[in-house]
Specification:
The protein contains four helices and two strands, in the order ααββαα. The chain is mainly α and 103 residues long. The longest helix is centred in the C-terminal third of the chain and has 25 residues.
Length: 103
């Protein structure tokens, strides 16, 4: 449930996707030390390598797409992108649910 909430998707989507990621070797399930009924999803070494490959491909694509931009355009993009990221982080911090009290 927490993973679905963090990703902004329905819990059923996570329920269907995690077994596929686990079967592919990208994640593993581990017991939640705080809740015996729950499990945590942990990224495996293979999962980390897959993320690295995706990031590298994205960076190469971005470099190719922006190759003809002027240095000033790139500086402006970087400034606005950092502003956007900061605003997203601030918004997410404001939207975090209060911790649940345990009985």
């Amino acid at each position: 449930g927490e993973l679905a909430q963090r990703l902004g998707v329905e819990a059923s989507h996570v329920t269907r996707t995690v077994p596929q990621l686990e079967k592919a070797g990208y994640v593993s399930r581990v017991p939640d030390p705080d809740d015996r009924r729950a499990q945590r999803i942990r990224l495996t070494q293979e999962g980390r390598r897959a993320i690295d490959r995706i990031r590298e491909a994205g960076a190469r694509g971005m470099q190719s797409a922006l190759a003809h931009w002027s240095p000033e355009d790139l500086r402006q993009l970087a400034t606005l992108f950092h502003r956007m990221a900061d605003d997203f982080v601030a918004y997410a911090a404001d939207e975090e649910p209060e911790p649940r009290a345990t009985a």
